[in-house]
Amino acid sequence: MCTKEAARPPPDGRPGGIIGGLDGLRALAVIAVVIYHITPGALPGGFLGVDVFFVVSGFLITTLLLREVRKTKKVDLKGFWTRRARRLLPALIFLVVTVVPAAALINRDLLVGIGRQVLGALTFSSNWLEIAHGSSYFDQTSPLLFKNFWSLAVEEQFYLLWPPLFILIIMMIRTWQTRVGLALGLAGVSALLMAIMADPMNLTRVYYGTDTHLFGLTLGIALAFSWAPPSGTWMVGTWQRYSQIVGIAGFVGLMTLLLVLEDQSMIAYRGGILLASICTVALIAAMLAPGSRLAKISDNRVSRWVGTRSYAIYLWHWPILVMASLLWPAAPGTTEFWIRSALAVAVTFGICEFSYHYIETPIRKNGFKETISIAVNHIATRSPAAVGLTVAGAIMVAGTGIAVASAPRSPPSSSRSRRTRSASRSKTTPPPIRPETRRDPKMQTGERAPKTSTTPMLPAPITQAPITREI
């Protein structure tokens, strides 16, 4: 569809392609999430890494759309959605057909509700399916294998709905100030909905909901509209003088929230998550300034490596942590716990490196059809590697189908009885994988609850307690 916005070159001093420092921000976000899932006491607000991703995504996607409009005077919706599919689906499908059979071999209790989880993963509707099912993100005694896919669903719904709305906005609203105001207004409505609808007895609805968790994406949109030509000229001059101070303030604010904000504090849902998103906007805006020192500091070899693989790391780390906790039960803080956690992270990074080079990159560059054609040609020449990979892939797909079709609706009674007998013979119950202090549901101010109330973030060892139902 065409728009009437003329193409304009970017202001002097502003990058026209890759934006330096954003890989560093992605790296910070995914590392925060991984630490939070391993040991929340070290980083209670690590869950805010997801909101950093939301702001970055809203900004980048809108920036790409604006550049396309300036260059071609239109938005190719089919091309946009095809590129998104190339970026997201390969790693996701590879994970599903690998993790589901592996979970079936480790313990079939992990497969409770797996059909719904796989459906949500492949249709990018995990958040709404879990809300409809009555799942709880915070009742983590038996976490879902693909629990972390809720945020992927929110982002993909944004990718689906935003481009058509973007075209309408570009055609109907001529001034950048009005566009920014509209985006900020949507962010305000979403944040207000989260604050109003937040129920201490069921925080999952506002945490998972696209409507109540949209403000990070729309704040990123507002920044993109304000940065694009001709509005982006404000980045040169006054802003350039003060941008680094604002960026440092944003970084300090974000790190403070990562260190102190907790996932069930009502403060998080009545301004805390919004504040983290605003701090992220300040950081990105500072990185956009010409000659930004923050961008240079954030742009290094390590941050680029982690940042470019952050999507795969986010996908893989949680299922691997869940399965590792069942394979090797260990009390938090013990040597065994840290060794297990380090091995889980190492396995995650190793799989992500393989996925990035041999699955994601070829399809992202060549597309699905050409990649499949190349694979078929290799098989036709009877290349041992190609034939072996084809057979392995077929086994993984078949194993996934069988595991989903035969998944238990609830843990088998025999399994429960064995665990009960085992627990009764034990003088002491093994400590949970990851204890975390919980709050009184009636508390509205975010204070800590008494330390005697704990629940594990990762599943307790299978010999400790039965998994009665999925989250």
Percent of residues in helices comes to 55-70%
Mean pLDDT, as a whole number? Answer: 83
Give the domain tally.
1
Proportion of residues in β-strands: under 5%
With helices defined by DSSP (H or I, 4 residues minimum), what is the helix count? Answer: 17
For the biggest β-sheet, the strand order reads: 1-2
Uncertain residue ranges: 1-16, 413-471
Gap between N and C termini: 42 Å
Structural class: mainly alpha
Q: Order of SSEs, N→C?
A: HHHHHHHHHHHHHHHHHEE
Q: In one word, what is the shape? A: globular
Number of strands: 2
Rg over alpha carbons: 23 Å
Largest sheet data: 2 strands, antiparallel
Domain Acyltransferase: 20-352
GO molecular function: acyltransferase activity, transferring groups other than amino-acyl groups
Transmembrane segments: 18-39, 45-66, 87-106, 157-173, 180-198, 213-230, 242-261, 267-290, 311-331, 337-359
Pfam families: Acyl_transf_3
Provide a quick synopsis of the model.
This protein has 471 residues and is mainly alpha-helical. The chain has one domain. It has helices at residues 22-38, 49-72, 77-106, 114-123, 126-133, 149-172, 176-197, 204-208, 215-227, 238-260, 266-288, 293-298, 301-308, 310-327, 335-380, 384-405, 413-425, and strands at 435-437, 454-456.
Give a quick set of tags describing it:
471 residues; mainly alpha; two-stranded antiparallel sheet; 17 helices; 2 strands; globular; disordered N terminus; disordered C terminus; transmembrane helix; membrane; acyltransferase
Question: Topology of this structure?
Answer:
Blueprint: H1 22-38, H2 49-72, H3 77-106, H4 114-123, H5 126-133, H6 149-172, H7 176-197, H8 204-208, H9 215-227, H10 238-260, H11 266-288, H12 293-298, H13 301-308, H14 310-327, H15 335-380, H16 384-405, H17 413-425, E1 435-437, E2 454-456
Antiparallel strand pairs: 1-2
